[in-house]
Design goal:
Strand order of the largest sheet: 1-2-3-4-5-6-7-8
Structural class: mainly beta
Number of strands: 8
Oligomer: single chain
Largest sheet: 8 strands, antiparallel, barrel
Radius of gyration: 24 Å
Length: 133
């Protein structure tokens, strides 16, 4: 019995320390938490829109970009880049509307602060306070 005890202990220690982390090599898509449909209020200067629906999807072929549809309730689709719980909207012109900004998500609550310049003469800062539906 004494001969088997060291072999048993050695075998158990080997098994215990040779097991690696099963999550190694699994990539987590940081965009996942942003994907979905949102409703909420957008405020631009003294103007507000309380019935806007925003749809966020991932951009194919990218591992960090999102497509944001209907921001500014203008029927446009803009591209944002995700890093952790934050997104960045690099300056871009879609149609005749220029966007730039940033946002963050906490749970189901998404806030996007952005600057917009449209062909109707509005240029200013906007905030979209959204909840995933």
């Amino acid at each position: 019995m004494k001969i088997y005890y060291p072999i048993l202990v050695s075998s158990l220690l080997f098994l215990l320390f040779s097991c690696g982390n099963d999550d190694e090599g699994i990539l987590i898509d940081e965009r996942e938490k942003f994907l979905g449909t949102y409703a909420g209020m957008e405020v631009c200067g003294q103007l507000s829109d309380n019935g806007n629906i925003i749809i966020i999807t991932s951009v194919e072929g990218s591992n960090d970009q999102l497509s944001i549809q209907h921001l500014y309730n203008f029927g446009t689709t803009i591209i944002a880049t995700v890093s952790g719980d934050n997104l960045t909207i690099e300056s871009q012109t879609v149609g005749l509307v220029r966007f730039s900004g940033s946002g963050s998500i906490i749970g189901d609550a998404l806030t996007i602060d952005y600057t917009v310049s449209d062909p109707f003469g509005f240029s200013g800062d906007c905030t979209a306070s959204l909840t995933k539906i």
